[in-house]
Amino acid sequence: MMNVRFNKIKNIFLAALAVLMLFLSFPQVLYAKDPDSSKIYVTDEAEILSDTKESKLQKKCKSVSKNCKTDVAVLTISKGLDYTDLDNYVRTFAKEKGYAYDSSSSEADYIVYVIDMKSRAVRVVTSGKAKSDISQSDLQSIIDKTTSTLSDGNYYKACVKYTDITQKLLSTSKTYKLYLYMPIKLGIAAVIAIVVVLVMMFNAKAKMTVDGNTYAKNGIHVYRREDRFINTTVTTRTIETNNSSGGSSGGGGGNSGSAGGHF
């Protein structure tokens, strides 16, 4: 009996280990494809960024876009636009640039941080995943936390703040949290599973010191007795409830599509 139980535990452990190794051998299943290497995430028409900082910001936006599964872009202009006119300009710009992380999505997934040096306006325009996962208050928070930096003339720092906040906000989505650091999570889970199984195997060995054959050698007959479950009867009763009161609406993300301010 001890050997049967030991073999059963061993088989379960080996099967779980095999599944884990197979899972780890296909990391591409866990992560979406890399962003298009030719895609431009930073467009500095107002020329407020040095070439070096623009290059760094491009890499930053590309990395955040990959992590958030959403195109994260920066646009600077000097056209004197604001409010709805600026939003419409950004959406046209985003379409021309091909901002849409996943082409199979029903709505293009992107977020654009735009600075208009002529109107001194700054806005964040969202679509798709960024629009549904980021709340209006959080969207306005991006503006509030970067406006003072823009006023100080540190445009690069403001853009970096925007990318950092955006990544933090989008990383709270269930999908991102599920796949974030997946190899590390699986490794920890594997170690825990191995420890648990080893403890179970040790306890099984320690407890199974004697069996029926031990006493049978001394002339004692051991009879096995078992109880068999035949059936059960379940009686159900409908409990009426009062549905006259209206249900409360759930919270979550979602915004009007944009937010803005001035510096």
Automatic annotation (TrEMBL):
Signal peptide: 1-32
InterPro entries from the UniProt entry: TPM_dom
Disordered as annotated region, ranges: 239-263
TPM domain residues: 42-164
Superkingdom classification of source: Bacteria
Compositionally biased region (Gly residues): 247-263
Key words, A-Z: Membrane, Signal, Transmembrane, Transmembrane helix
Transmembrane segments: 178-202
Name the record gives this protein: TPM domain-containing protein
